[in-house]
């Protein structure tokens, strides 16, 4: 059972909207994670006959490819700015889908109303994991498909958040770390008894967009909301800003060295299951 304080939750969600409105997530998605959407659509077996919900869809990285199959797609997100960017991307690709402002922990859809419920590095940022998982299961029909891509705790993005933690304000009580969604045991605990044919697979996304670690840091400091939020909180402390810069540059070097040259490897967990 999750202890729930509506007033505190309202503050948390307002903060999340503000964070994801910083910078330009559409640019981040286009330059780095755009290959993941089609991967998830294929893994979830989405086709033209499906009613699909993409939770925490952001700018439509998975929702737009899902709609391109002919499926009836609803892209939901907590942040209006992300939905507006997604609408423009869909228009540019002549793709029709529904864009819906919605909280992943309190979805405004009837029970069992979708054939497939997906999320591509999105729902993992919902602060109360059990609430988000319960809502995902509620709106998926029996026999429907669940599909997720989440960053792993051990991969680059999980390690990025670990580096940011000591520089960030403490998280609100009762909230959980996003990269936990990239742990199979955590996924099993969230979906226990509600799904069958649960499959997880660790995969790697190769990022060759950046010529040097400094290029990555400059791009993410300009565009990635969670990173911008941390740097904004450090504005009165130049020494801490410099220390964080150095830690992030070392992190980039560590993960790019694994792949050879300035090609970074970002590990993620691909999750598929059938709703019981």
Automatic annotation (TrEMBL):
What UniProt keywords apply to this chain's record, in alphabetical order? Methyltransferase, Transferase
Q: Which InterPro entries match?
A: Methyltransf_11, SAM-dependent_MTases_sf
**Gene Ontology terms for molecular function:** S-adenosylmethionine-dependent methyltransferase activity
Q: Pfam families per the record?
A: Methyltransf_11 (PF08241)
GO term, biological process aspect, one: methylation
Give all residue intervals belonging to the Methyltransferase type domain. Answer: 53-146
The protein's matches in SUPFAM superfamilies, at most eight in alphabetical order, are given as: S-adenosyl-L-methionine-dependent methyltransferases
The protein depicted here goes by the name: Methyltransferase domain-containing protein
């Amino acid at each position: 059972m999750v202890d729930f304080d509506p007033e505190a939750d309202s503050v948390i969600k307002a903060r999340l909207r503000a964070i994801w409105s910083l910078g330009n997530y559409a640019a981040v998605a286009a330059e780095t994670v755009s290959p993941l959407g089609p991967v998830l659509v294929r893994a979830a077996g989405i086709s033209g006959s499906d009613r699909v919900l993409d939770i925490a869809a952001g700018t439509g990285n998975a929702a737009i490819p899902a709609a391109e199959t002919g499926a009836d797609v609803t892209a939901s997100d907590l942040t209006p700015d992300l939905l507006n960017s997604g609408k423009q991307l869909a228009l540019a690709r002549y793709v029709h889908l529904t864009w819906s402002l919605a909280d992943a922990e309190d979805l405004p859809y009837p029970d069992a109303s979708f054939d497939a419920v997906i999320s591509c590095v999105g729902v993992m940022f919902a602060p109360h994991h059990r609430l988000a998982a319960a809502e995902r299961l509620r709106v998926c029909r029996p026999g429907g498909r669940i599909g997720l891509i989440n960053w792993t705790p051990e991969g680059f993005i999980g390690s990025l958040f670990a580096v940011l933690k000591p520089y960030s304000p403490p998280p609100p009580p009762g909230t959980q770390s996003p990269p936990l969604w990239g742990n199979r045991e955590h996924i099993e605990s969230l979906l226990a008894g509600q799904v069958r044919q649960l499959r997880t697979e660790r995969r790697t996304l190769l990022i060759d967009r950046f010529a040097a670690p400094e290029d990555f840091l400059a791009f993410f400091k300009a565009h990635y909301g969670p990173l911008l939020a941390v740097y904004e909180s450090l504005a009165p402390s130049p020494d801490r800003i410099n220390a964080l810069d150095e830690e992030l540059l070392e992190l980039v070097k560590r993960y790019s060295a694994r792949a050879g040259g300035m090609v970074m490897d970002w590990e993620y967990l691909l999750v598929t299951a059938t709703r019981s």
